[in-house]
């Protein structure tokens, strides 16, 4: 594989973009069409239909059609092109984009994170970059405000979770509306076909789409880019044909004057219809969210050179056709297709709708994986579907849940207009969350002036609030769906995060002193057995209460004891060289160590079977270099050692010239490794409020019992697992 192909498979980051050839950038731009723009490119299927539903259908004349086109053009230009391409995509987090990337930037620069176990040593990570201009008085004041008022930090987290839940709602609504809209076109040729058959065909396609997810997108991704490219060229060509054939004066409607005329003539009905116009920018958030796979330059090139002009031409052509065929407003897209190419375009539309759905489903998997890493979602099984392309994952539980919800929406609504109303509210909500976070980024991260942040917030936020207000009026007509979904997901996320934080607080308050365990040893008749014991804990300091509970009931533990803390940090990725931090616990003769395993919020928190070897190798290196003043290893301020534990050959290089303690560690490794995990059960205190009892005793414990166990997530061998039961009160 040549370097160009390797970069195409792995994506390129902003740091090494300057070293990438022009050919590679163009290749990435081409491939991004299939992954990033599938959702955005299929919006012409339903925008005009949804916009002219309801009472606006009484105003079907040329001026109203041109007014809608003017709204579509300027919304698409201002939000998609100016906001996302020119501004938002500059706020990447080490090449990663999306809501969590913005929140991560804010957490690092203003210390807003609620993640437990954050340490000073985490700030030495290569991706933990906070350098730049010095704090301005505005940024300092804003940081101080958040630090003095923890409730506002919590409110910001809830706000981010709200945007995330609305984005997950996109994962439910996009496949439903995309597939249903594409399949509905067949009724133009088979007018006697009952709606039930359209629903059945759509459901079959949806079941097939979700059933193929476990294979991973990389197996069929080579088809995505050609399909979307062909689709964009096709609709742009049809748009040009319709402009020339039906009404060339449609070009005049690009003037913003037509928007004012539209609102003046249609009044309240025109304002309400904007809930349909907003569907023209569905998928723009994906441009930002997919930065990690392609970087900003290829995505910008693809959008400005092909996606933007193709979609504008398509909307203009459809408006030109409608200006001469008012009666076809509810099936405008397929009616505007020339008869000679109808069936090829119909087939291409069906494929494009599947591609658009696939992109959103994959993004939902990635989003929930990030939420789980940040302790905001129950543990789920995460399968890495590609050994070459990092970040392509599959989550079985989420996949089947999305499928059931998509089928329920398709069967329950059976109408593109109602699906569009639900879809529009979800899309505008996510964009508004991004706008608010960007305003904070401008002040805190970019050290910009407050006036610039306010200008950004007021200009783009006001546009989005107009669309949100229009979408809110559609709540009875389908808009309640994303609200209900987001409330359910937010409830799950918040309660899981709350329960996890309470458990961590209990562990911190009840951690055991190592000196106490050493002193109790003789009175308990404590013995040391051969082997290595890995005690998994949430703590980065001290001895967990579960271990104290273990030794008081079974006064024996292994000759070598390692407290392993797996934690997330506020960076997208942690390299293998920086993943492990090893330190000693207690006196040297106790043979106890601590290993902190660090992951970024986009890393998969899974270790392969080599973890034992890497860990033992790292501890031996630590023992050998612990007292060497000239060692090249990194020493943290708390006397921890950062270990490059990414090489299997290390185990072969420690067979000679070792200290006695190192030899004992290797001998213990040969005797076997036991994984000791706490099996905790949470209970609310008797004095707790009714809501806290419901949240902890019912909801949290239900989620804990039905999510993946920690040993499954950590790939612990079942034959080496030892669980210690314990009840804690919060």
UniProtKB/TrEMBL annotation:
The chain crosses the membrane at residues 65-86, 155-177, 197-215, 222-244, 270-289, 301-321, 341-368, 389-411, 423-446, 453-473, 479-496. It is found in: Cell membrane; Membrane. Its main location: membrane. Pfam families: K_trans (PF02705), K_trans_C (PF22776). GO terms for cellular component: plasma membrane. It is a multi-pass membrane protein. It comes from the Eukaryota. GO terms for molecular function: potassium ion transmembrane transporter activity. InterPro entries: K+_transporter, K_trans_C, K_trans_N. Keywords: Ion transport, Membrane, Potassium, Potassium transport, Transmembrane, Transmembrane helix, Transport. Residues 530-728 form the K+ potassium transporter C-terminal domain. Residues 28-517 form the K+ potassium transporter integral membrane domain. Belongs to the HAK/KUP transporter (TC 2.A.72.3) family. PANTHER family: OSMOTIC STRESS POTASSIUM TRANSPORTER (PTHR30540), POTASSIUM TRANSPORTER 1 (PTHR30540:SF14). Potassium transporter. This is Potassium transporter. It comes from Rubus argutus (Southern blackberry).
């Amino acid at each position: 594989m040549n370097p160009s192909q390797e970069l195409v498979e792995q994506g390129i980051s902003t740091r090494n973009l300057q070293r990438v050839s022009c050919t590679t950038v163009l290749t990435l731009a081409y491939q991004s069409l299939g992954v990033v723009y599938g959702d955005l490119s299929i919006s012409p299927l339903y925008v005009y239909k949804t916009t002219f539903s309801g009472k606006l259908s009484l105003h079907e004349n040329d001026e109203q059609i041109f007014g809608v086109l003017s709204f579509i053009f300027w919304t698409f230009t201002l939000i998609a092109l100016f906001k996302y391409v020119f501004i938002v995509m500059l706020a990447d987090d080490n090449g990663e984009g999306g809501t969590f990337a913005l929140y991560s930037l804010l957490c690092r620069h203003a210390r807003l994170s609620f993640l437990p176990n954050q340490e000073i040593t985490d700030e030495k990570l290569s991706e933990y970059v906070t350098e730049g201009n010095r704090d301005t008085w505005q940024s300092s004041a804003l940081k101080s405000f958040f630090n003095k008022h923890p409730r506002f930090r919590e409110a910001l987290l809830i706000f981010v979770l709200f945007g995330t839940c609305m984005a997950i709602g996109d994962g439910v609504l996009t496949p439903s509306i995309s597939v249903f809209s594409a399949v509905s076109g067949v009724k133009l040729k088979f007018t006697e076909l009952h709606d039930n058959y359209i629903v059945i065909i759509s459901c079959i396609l949806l079941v097939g789409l979700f059933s193929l997810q476990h294979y991973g997108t990389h197996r069929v991704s080579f088809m995505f880019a050609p399909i979307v490219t062909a689709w964009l060229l096709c609709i742009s060509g049809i748009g040009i044909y319709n402009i020339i054939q039906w009404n060339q004066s449609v070009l005049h409607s690009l003037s913003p004057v037509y928007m004012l005329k539209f609102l003046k003539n249609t009044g309240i009905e025109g304002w309400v219809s904007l809930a349909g116009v907003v569907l023209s920018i569905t998928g723009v958030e994906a441009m930002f969210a997919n930065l990690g796979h392609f970087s900003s330059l290829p995505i910008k090139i693809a959008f400005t050179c092909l996606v933007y002009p193709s979609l504008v031409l398509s909307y203009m052509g459809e408006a030109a056709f409608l200006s001469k065929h008012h009666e076809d407003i509810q099936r405008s897209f397929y009616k505007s297709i020339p008869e000679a190419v109808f069936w090829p375009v119909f087939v291409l539309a069906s494929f494009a709708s599947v591609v658009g759905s696939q992109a959103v489903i994959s993004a939902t998997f990635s989003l929930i994986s990030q939420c789980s890493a940040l302790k905001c979602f129950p543990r789920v099984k995460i399968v890495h579907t590609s050994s070459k392309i990092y970040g392509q994952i599959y989550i079985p539980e989420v996949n089947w849940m999305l499928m059931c919800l998509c089928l329920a929406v398709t069967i329950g609504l059976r109408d593109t207009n109602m699906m569009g109303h639900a879809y529009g509210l979800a899309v505008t909500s996510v964009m508004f969350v991004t706008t608010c976070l960007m305003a904070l980024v401008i002040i805190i991260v970019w050290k910009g002036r407050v006036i610039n942040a306010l200008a950004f917030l007021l200009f783009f936020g006001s546009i989005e609030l107009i669309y949100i207000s229009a979408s809110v009026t559609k709540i009875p007509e389908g808009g309640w769906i994303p609200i209900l979904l987001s409330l359910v997901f937010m409830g799950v996320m918040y309660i899981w995060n709350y329960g996890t934080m309470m458990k961590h607080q209990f562990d911190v308050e009840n951690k055991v002193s190592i000196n106490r365990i050493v002193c109790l040893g003789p009175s308990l008749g404590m013995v040391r057995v051969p082997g290595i014991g890995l005690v998994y804990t949430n703590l980065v300091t001290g001895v967990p209460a579960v271990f104290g509970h273990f030794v008081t009931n079974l006064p024996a533990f292994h000759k070598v004891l390692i407290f392993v803390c797996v934690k997330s940090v506020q960076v997208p990725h942690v390299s293998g060289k920086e993943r492990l931090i090893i330190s000693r616990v207690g006196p040297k003769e106790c043979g106890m160590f601590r290993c902190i395993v660090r992951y970024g919020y986009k890393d998969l928190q899974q270790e392969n079977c080599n973890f034992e070897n890497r860990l033992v190798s790292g501890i031996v290196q630590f023992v050998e270099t612990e007292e060497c003043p000239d060692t090249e290893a990194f020493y943290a301020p708390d006397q921890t050692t950062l270990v490059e534990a990414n090489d299997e050959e290390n185990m072969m290089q420690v067979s000679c010239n070792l200290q006695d303690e190192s030899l004992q560690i290797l001998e213990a490794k040969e005797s076997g490794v036991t994984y000791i995990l706490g099996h905790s059960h949470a209970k609310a205190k008797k004095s707790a409020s009714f809501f806290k009892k419901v949240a902890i005793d019912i909801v949290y414990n239900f989620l804990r019992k039905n999510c993946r166990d920690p040993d499954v997530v950590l790939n612990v061998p079942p034959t080496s697992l030892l669980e210690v039961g314990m009840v804690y009160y919060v």
